[in-house]
Design a protein that fits this description.
heterodimer, A: alpha+beta, D-Maltodextrin-Binding Protein, domain 2, 17 helices, B: MetI-like fold
Chain lengths: ~450, ~325
């Protein structure tokens, strides 16, 4: 073969190589802009086998409660032929980072879980400010939002960007079976809490499991105590925002002092900083740990895999010696929002509207073993934890989770690290509240 | 980690060409040039374009963005000069992460190289199980860092295997909250990194040791040199190239360490194991402070680049 005959072949090869490369890069960009890009991160397609017909309108949905969502999705698809919802899941421990990465990269699912109010990077105010979330104000469910619900579902410009799917309280989750075996009862005053810890220790049990290796769990006890000690002042948020008070100048000091007091009283397991939350759940299921302070909506997940007959009872964590003063820390749990870059915005909105209906709210609350976010239909029957949340709400003895009004995610981050440092003995209460104030004003 | 291993494989192959190795003669080179495949130079084009698109352009973009207020999403941003870099030096978490990264790097470099060399020396003998042992020590290298991290998290749990073994040996006093005690956790992470990386370090040393002329060592022995003297005066100078390569690979690999730390501690407790890479990740994706994160990333890239260039220069001189 002469060089003359080889030249066209070389050119053809070169053209082929360049075209292949362009095809690959084009494929990448297509994947990045559509639902297929969802697979690019750590998300897993939980509906890989779902049959999608040509012409179907597909909504990609990032679920954190697949069991609860599956029934809601079935109802939606049944009521709306031609619409399909493909469900993805993300690991719980790194949910915020994974989803924020996907949102920033433009590859997040159409519908995803956010958090109410402000204070974390996936809270509706923060996420909407970054342009991640779509405006849902034109959906009909917004007219059914109470004033308090609306306040944590809107962004900085007052646009509704979230659908409340359930609500939850933060309090003690007690293994009632193990409690009965140990002959102990749920404490209703602060002194009883300390006595409960001593009695549990005498019985060879851990009173309250604490898994600070998963840093987010560190906020549970402070929030539960703050509901009674700090948030009895309805003007507190406004005062803090105006600089009239601060963490250092408020009862937050008492909150962290009592947190440490619980530690010194032997309320928690050894080495909380090295203990994972999953370990705490295992121990609680097994009855080696009698209780933990956490979200009532996690009771269902905690019971999964527990010995048959195990019951978990939910109660507010007292912070004073007057039971009448005890308030319950509550807030919207799962909030759903629409990605501003949703591939089919109309279909995504239709799905969200459906999720806000009383029928789905009932199904979702029942399946997630949490209190409902909006009104429910007759099919709903509440759990013991729901009754506690409802009773506290009716008595006006509730306080919203404090981070929902914190102005930026740095406060929450400082809180997580500060609590770990407190239990490592490398931080004092004074130092911690100073760090929180610095983060608040940063 | 992949980069380190890939680099290491190349390096291990190159180490064979040290003193004592049979260098390819001129005849071999001539034969290769006559009968070998001579692909056209433009065959490099697809790979070059892919490299430019995936590596060079994003790095240059990142460098450019480090002087702006770009928030990772919005197309609008402002030029702020060196403000982001000034913030890096004002940021306390950056200082803590820098100190941790340096300490982690020092620990990993020293321990991994000493252990790797000792293993290589031990397995460069005629002991019968040497091939099996080489395989065993190399096995962790093929695991991903995330898997290794989670594995060690399980082992180092307060009630995990390590503490159980210590308890069974009657060493209760040595039991620790390995990943929960800020005074211990960084070293626990370092131990896991060394466990995974020591195999590749061993292989590089082993490749170099197998090319040390036996007659030189024998002559030194006849002259009365003891084991330690032979190691210091004969062996180490002859495997100097491998030493340089291993040092640089462990330094650059640990300076940019992220996955193992993230899997084991997430940077905790209370920032005790935060490295520059985990701080960059948190600033970008937890706090959404992209300008600060990008500036930190650029600085890390520059530090690693300087060390990588030093590696190339030293390697060229020594091998």
């Amino acid at each position: 073969m002469t060089s003359t005959t080889r030249r066209p072949a070389r050119l053809a090869l070169a053209a082929g190589a360049v075209l292949s490369l362009l095809a690959v890069t084009a494929g990448c960009s297509t994947a990045g802009s559509g639902a297929a890009g969802v697979n690019g991160g750590e998300l897993q397609n939980a509906d890989a086998d779902k049959e999608i017909q040509e012409g179907d309108r597909v909504v990609t949905y990032l679920s954190q409660s697949p069991d609860a969502d599956r029934e809601a999705i079935r109802l939606f698809e049944e009521a709306n032929p031609g619409y399909k919802v493909t469900m993805y899941t993300a690991p719980g421990t790194s949910y915020q980072q994974v989803v924020t990465t996907q949102l920033a990269g433009g590859t997040a699912p159409d519908v995803l879980r956010t958090f109410p109010g402000n204070g974390s990077n996936l809270a509706v105010v923060q996420a909407s400010e970054k342009g991640f979330l779509a405006d849902l104000s034109d959906l009909s469910f917004t007219s059914r939002l109470s004033e308090s619900l609306r306040s944590v579902m809107v962004d900085g410009e007052g646009r509704v960007v979230g659908v409340p799917m359930n609500s939850s309280g933060i309090g003690g989750m007690y293994n009632a079976t193990a409690l009965e075996e140990a002959g102990l009862s749920i404490p209703t005053t602060w002194s009883e809490v300390l006595q409960f810890c001593a009695d549990a220790s005498d019985a060879g049990k851990v009173a309250y499991g604490l898994g600070l290796k998963d840093a987010w769990t560190g906020q549970m006890v402070p929030y539960a105590l703050a509901a009674t000690l700090v948030q009895d002042d309805p003007e507190l948020d406004a005062k803090m925002a105006a600089g009239e008070t601060s963490f250092a100048d408020s009862e937050w000091r008492d909150v962290f002092a009592k947190y440490l007091e619980m530690g010194e009283a032997g309320c928690f397991n050894d080495n909380p900083n090295g203990t994972a939350f999953s370990t705490v759940q295992d121990e609680l299921r097994a009855g080696d740990t009698l209780a933990t302070v956490g979200l009532s909506l996690t009771i269902g997940a905690t019971l999964t895999g527990a010995p048959t007959g195990t019951e978990i009872e939910f109660a507010p964590l007292p912070a004073t010696d007057d039971p009448a003063e005890t308030r319950l820390s509550t807030g919207v749990g799962v909030t759903l929002s629409m990605n501003a870059k949703a591939a089919d915005p109309e279909a995504a909105k239709k799905f969200l509207e459906f999720m806000a209906t009383p029928q789905v709210q009932s199904v979702y609350a029942t399946a997630s073993k949490a209190s409902p976010g909006l009104e429910v239909d007759d099919s709903y029957s509440g759990t013991q934890a729901d009754e506690v949340v409802l009773a506290a709400t009716e008595q006006g003895m509730v306080a919203q989770w404090p981070d929902q009004t914190w102005p930026n995610p740095r406060v929450q981050q400082a809180h997580f690290e500060g609590v770990q440092a407190l239990f490592a003995g490398t931080q004092t209460v004074d130092g911690l509240v100073a760090e929180l104030d610095a983060a608040y004003t940063s | 980690m992949t980069t380190v291993q890939d680099d290491a494989s190349v390096v291990a192959a190159r180490s064979v060409g040290q003193p004592g190795a049979a260098a390819p003669g001129p005849t071999t080179r001539r034969r290769r040039s006559r009968v070998g495949i001579r692909p056209p130079k433009w065959f490099v084009l697809p790979a070059l374009v892919a490299y430019l698109v995936v590596v060079v352009v994003p790095n240059l973009q990142g460098f450019g963005y480090s002087f702006t207020t770009w928030d990772g999403l919005s197309p609008e941003f402002e030029w702020v000069g060196l403000d982001n870099f000034a913030r890096v030096f004002d940021d306390r978490s950056s200082y803590g992460a820098m100190v941790n990264t340096v300490l982690l790097t020092l620990a990993v470099v020293v321990v991994q190289n000493v252990l790797g060399l000792l293993l290589a020396l031990g397995l460069n003998t005629t002991v019968k199980s040497r091939y099996l042992l080489r395989l065993v020590f190399f096995l962790p290298v093929v695991l991903t860092a995330i898997v290794t991290g989670y594995l060690w998290t399980y082992l180092l749990n307060p009630r995990g295997t390590v503490n159980q073994i210590l308890g069974a040996l009657g060493l209760e006093g040595a039991q620790q909250d390995w990943l929960g005690d800020p005074g211990v956790s960084l070293w626990a992470v370092a131990a896991a990194i060394v466990w995974q990386g020591v195999g590749i370090t061993m292989v590089i040393y082993l490749a170099a040791l197998q090319n040390v002329p036996a007659e030189l060592v024998e002559a030194a022995k006849i002259d009365g040199a003891g084991s330690f003297r032979r190691l210091m005066a004969i062996v180490l100078p002859l495997i100097n190239g491998a030493v340089v390569i291993n040092l640089m690979l462990t330094i650059t690999g640990t300076l940019k360490q992220f996955d193992m730390v993230y899997a084991m501690t997430g940077g905790g407790p209370a920032g005790a194991t935060e490295t520059i890479s985990t701080v960059i990740y948190k600033n970008a994706f937890t706090l959404l402070d992209f300008p600060l994160a990008i500036a930190q990333g650029v600085l890390l890239t520059l530090v690693v680049a300087v060390i990588a260039i030093a590696q190339i220069r030293l390697t060229r001189r020594e091998i």
